[in-house]
Amino acid sequence: MISKANNPRGYTLLEVMIAMVILSVGILATSKLQISFMQSNTKSITITEGSAQVQTKIEELINLPYASLANGNDIVQVGGDGRIYNFTWAVTPDSPFIGTSTIDVLVAWNDENQVARNVTYTFTKTDLYTGAEW
In the chain, how long is the greatest CA-to-CA distance? Predict the structure, then answer.
């Protein structure tokens, strides 16, 4: 009679339990990683949305007449979740050259965890009519 302990055709209960523990640890690690990816994706979406809002505000400021540029602020509510973006812009006239203005646009908002986020862009606007006689 062949002993069951020496039977090479089957697995023992201990081997099956160890395999299940290893598989469970792998599945838990994968689910934790998936949650982390989802949080990172949400954060990226809000930063992208904030950057898009800054680009919209920059286009508005670019389309203003040069003489109308002034410091200011604005509040915009966008997105399906009603996220509020606070804009502040500072105009530095005749910087870096006479006839150009440097404009710094800052947008700030709170993400889904109520953590303050912001994006800043700097651009220059030229007065095309400075010194020209039309």
Answer: 113
